[in-house]
Amino acid sequence: MRPTPGPTDHQLLLDLLPRVSRTFAMGIRLLPPDLSHAVSTAYLLCRIADTIEDDASLSAGVKRDLLLEFSGWLDGRDHDSSRLVGQFSASAGDDAALVRVTGMVLHDFAGLPDATQAAIRPPVEEMCRGMAGFVARESAEGLPPQPRDLEDLESYCWYVAGTVGWMLTDLFRQAGIPWGDTQYVRMRALSRGFGLGLQLTNVIRDMGEDHRRGATYVPEDLCARLDCTVWELFTPGREAVTDTVIATLTDRAMVHLRAARDYSVLLPRRRLRIRLFCLVPLFLAVGTLRRIRQKGTYRGGWVRIKLTRPVVRLTVVLAALVAPSNTMIRLAFRWLSPAESTGATGGAA
Asked: How many CB atoms within 10 Å of residue 127?
C-alpha cells in the first residue's frame, strides 16, 4: 500500500524549498498545484544528491557509496537512511538540514501517483550514478576533477542538472500537455539545453570562488589552447586570457539557453503558468551572463555576480508580460542576452 504523506511532509516542502533555493521556490509557486507538489518533491530529491556530491568533508569513496545507495531508495519501499543522515548530523546549513530529513522526502515521493514516480525516478537515478562516476575522479582533498575538455564539462553538467529537463518534460506531459510522439521527442531534445545552459551559467558565475578554494571546472584543453594553466586565470597580466575563457564558456552556455528559449515558446500558450516556470530561470540566466560579460568581474579580484532582489522581481514581471507571445519572448531573450564574442558558435539569437 502506498504511504499517505502527512502534514509534516507538506510542511517540509513549504519550509525547506526557499531555504535551499529561493529562486526555485519562487518558480514552484508559479505552477499549478498538482505539478507544484510533484516538482517540489523531485527537486528536493535532486538537492539531496547534489548536497552529497558537494560536501567537501566526505571522501570520494563515501560520496560514491552514498549516492549509489540513495539512488536505490526510490522504489517506494521503506529504507534505512540513518547512515546518510549520520554523515550530516553535525553539519550546519540548510542543505545539511534537508539531508537530515531524507526519510520524510522519500515518504512524500512514495505518496505520489505511480506515473509521477515513474517520471521522476529514472532521471534522479541517472543523476546519482553520473555524480558517483565523477566523484571517483576527485582529488584526495575532495576537490572536483578539472574537466578534460568542453565535452567532459557538459557531461558533468548533464548529470548534475541536464537530466532534470527530461524529468520536467515527462511531468508536463502528464499534466495534460497534448504532445504527440514526434513533438514529445523534440521537446525532450530541447529540454537538454535547459539543464546544460543553467548549469554552465552557474559554473561561469562561480569560477572565481572555485578558483580561490583550489577547484575549477574550466576545461584543460581550453586553457592549453591559450598557452596557460587554469591557475593563471584571475591573475595580473592574464586579463585577456581570462576574458577569452569567460567569453568561450558564455557563448557555449548561450547555445544551450537558445534551445531552452525554443523549448519555452513551444509550450502551449494556454499553459501560461508552465511557460512562466520555464521563462523565469531562463531570463535570470541570460541576464546573469550579460552582467558577467559587462562587468569584467575578475578585475581587481573576482566578485560573484548575484542579481539583486529588485532585478529578480523585474525579471519575473518581464517574463509575465511576454509569456503569452512567442515574438515577445524572443525579443525579451535577445534584449537580456550578452553580446556574442568574435567567433561565437551556435547561431544567431
From this structure: 26
Q: Which of 289, 229, 223, 281 is nearest to 254 (CA)?
A: 289
Residue 141 is predicted with a pLDDT of 63
d(C-alpha 197, C-alpha 187), whole Å: 15
Cβ contact 250:197 at 8 Å: no
3-state secondary structure 103-119: HHHHHHHHCCCHHHHHH
Range of the domain at 316: 146-341
Asked if residue 315 belongs to a domain, the reply is: yes
Grid cell locating 114: 505511480
Cβ atoms < 10 Å from Cβ of 118? 12
Residue 139 resides in a domain: no
Residue 134: inside a domain, yes or no?
A: no
Summarize pLDDT for 260-296 with one digit per residue, the tens: 999 999 999 999 999 999 999 999 999 999 988 876 5
Same-domain pairing of 70 and 187: no
* CATH classification at residue 193: 1.10.600.10
pTM, 2 dp: 0.89
Q: Domains in the chain: how many in total?
A: 2
Sign of the Cα torsion 60, 66, 69, 75 reads negative
Do 176 and 324 lie in a common domain? yes
Matching residue, cell 550578452 = 338
Q: Are residues 153 and 90 in the same domain?
A: no
Copy the grid coordinates of residue 306. Answer: 548575484
pLDDT at 344 over 50: no
The DSSP letter of residue 57 is: T
- What count of Cα atoms within 13 Å lies in the side-chain half-sphere of residue 112? 26
